Amino acid sequence: MLDKERIPRHVAIIMDGNGRWATKHGVPRLAGHNAGMKAMKEIVKRSHELGVQHLTVYAFSTENWKRSAEEVSGIFGLLVTYVESELREISENNVRIRIMGDTDALPEKALKAVNKAINNTAGNTGLQFNIALNYGGREEIRRAAAELAEEAKAGRIDPDAITDEDISRRLFTGEDHAGCGDPDVIIRTSGEERLSNFLLWQCAYSEFVFVDDLWPDFTPERYEEALEIYQNRNRRYGGRTPEKKG
Ligand code: IPE
Ligand code: IPE
Ligand code: MG
Question: Any idea what the Cα angle at residue 199 is, between residues 236 and 155, rounded to 5°?
Fold first, then answer.
């Protein structure tokens, strides 16, 4: 049983398997992405109910531009539809939406929709729902490094004094951006066991849970099972296993 007293603060999810779900059902890939949006909606809802503070989902990577123009524009189109149809309910649930990634490159309509979602939910204090869009782990580290180099060049920062915190703060998860910090657990669906450029810096001590379900099949019940697997892990951070009392 899931222990409701020990819900992770920050859950990150690599929502993978929409394409294979579509193939399995003999429907176009976009229908798979649409089914994926529906699954996402339910996971946001359950996260809110469970009291998760941060839910971060990988929706579109910096590498996903390699796909056909039709698929890419279809994915962003679905995102706009999602925001339009769900924003009111999201807001009523006190959910705050934030975006992680380089939004400058997004299609104009998608950018408008995400900005609206960010602005309309800015005052909400419940679940923070971070959507990684045009997100790449290496790209965010590169940006942070470039920023620090600029500051060093301008004499505002001493290279010898740069801390982990100086880097973390400048990442999309950092205080200067979404402010969600490192994930406690990263869940990936569809049976693949890799990060695909997701949260490379932040995953240093995250627990990984890989499940075989294709993303559209990932129900809130399966989500709770994944969180239960996380709860059964022993996080040591390089230290010793705490000894059992008794
Ligand atoms: C994840 O599903 C959604 C995105 C990457 C946008 P995929 O589209 O990668 O599905 P598979 O991996 O091809 O099954
Ligand atoms: C990772 O899935 C990106 C998202 C889920 C948005 P991909 O399907 O793009 O990853 P690879 O290509 O299998 O590594
Ligand atoms: Mg995939």
Answer: 100
Residue 60 in contact with ligand 1 by CB distance below 6 A:
yes
Burial of 168 (0-12, 13-18, 19+ CB in 10 A): middle
The predicted model scores a pTM of 0.97
Distance, in Å, from the CA atom of 64 to the CA atom of 76, rounded to the nearest integer, reads 12
Per DSSP (E only), the strands in 3-84 are 10-14, 54-61
Q: Verify whether ligand 1 is closer than 6 Å to residue 71 (CB atom).
A: no
* DSSP per-residue codes, 144-189: HHHHHHHHHHTTSS-GGG--HHHHHHHSTTSTTTT---S-SEEEE-
CATH number where 88 lies:
3.40.1180.10
Residue 236 DSSP code:
-
* Residue 16 a catalytic site member: yes
242 within domain boundaries? no
Q: Of these residues, 3, 16, 104, 115, which one is catalytic?
A: 16
Is 134 one of the catalytic residues? no
Q: Which domain holds residue 62?
A: 9-136+183-231
Rounded Cα–Cα distance for residues 75 and 71 (Å): 6
10-residue mean pLDDT profile of the chain (246 residues): values are 97 98 98 98 98 98 98 97 95 97 96 97 98 98 98 98 97 96 98 98 98 98 98 96 62
- Say if CB 59 and CB 39 are below 8 A apart: no
Kindly give the distance from the C-alpha atom of residue 103 to the centroid of ligand 3, in angstroms, as a whole number: 21
Angle (deg, nearest 10), helices 69-92 and 29-50: 30
Number of compact structural domains in the chain: 1
